[in-house]
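Q: I'm building a small set of examples for a reading group on sequence design. Run inverse folding on the following structure and report the sequence directly after it, with nothing in between.
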């Protein structure tokens, strides 16, 4: 069965004088080089230059707060159950009196961790969440040296309280 039309029949015939001089082959190679020389480069000078990701690129996660600044997550565990990589773990706790401004629901995640080395950035946790609490963002996951530094806890997952620390996920919600 022929998969492509690019196969070439190998021949052991003697080279012509022109072929033997290798000039046609060299000129052909130089023409290919010249053709690419004047094209716009497709590569970037990373890390000085970075490419802008799409609004719906599946990068690092964020745990969202509601409009009053309370954490949306209610530690229901649906994201963890739907995660094919078993990357999410959490410990639930009960909201105490006076903590209504910190946690939106009566139950909240005291501990919420994502093992970014296991995560395959499929977005199923985001799909499964009934509280619109977890979203993937267009930000790339930063590199690191130690394995334990890839286990992200609430300190890195929950968005900041201040307006400039909030992460806009409206484009993901609109999909
Ligand atoms: S993006 Fe996929 S693999 Fe990563 S934590 Fe969410 S469900 Fe798991
Ligand atoms: S992020 Fe969403 S799905 Fe996951 S535990 Fe919190 S509320 Fe449930």
């Amino acid at each position: 069965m022929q998969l492509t039309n690019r196969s070439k029949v190998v021949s052991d015939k003697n080279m012509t004088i022109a072929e033997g001089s290798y000039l046609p082959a060299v000129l052909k190679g130089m023409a290919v080089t010249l053709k690419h020389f004047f094209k716009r480069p497709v590569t970037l000078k990373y890390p000085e230059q970075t490419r802008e990701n799409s609004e719906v690129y599946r990068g690092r996660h964020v745990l969202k707060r509601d409009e009053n600044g309370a954490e949306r997550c209610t530690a229901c565990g649906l994201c963890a159950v739907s995660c094919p990589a078993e990357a999410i773990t959490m410990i639930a706790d009960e909201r105490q009196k006076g903590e209504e401004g910190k946690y939106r629901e009566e139950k909240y995640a005291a501990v919420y961790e994502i093992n970014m080395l296991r995560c395959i950035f499929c977005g199923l946790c985001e799909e499964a969440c009934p509280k619109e609490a977890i979203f993937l963002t267009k930000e790339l996951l930063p590199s690191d040296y130690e394995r334990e530094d890839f286990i992200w806890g609430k300190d890195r997952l929950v968005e900041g309280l201040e307006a400039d620390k909030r992460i806009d996920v409206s484009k993901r919600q609109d999909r």
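The pocket of iron/sulfur cluster (ligand 2) is lined by residues 73-79, 128-129, 131, 133-134 (CB under 6 Å).
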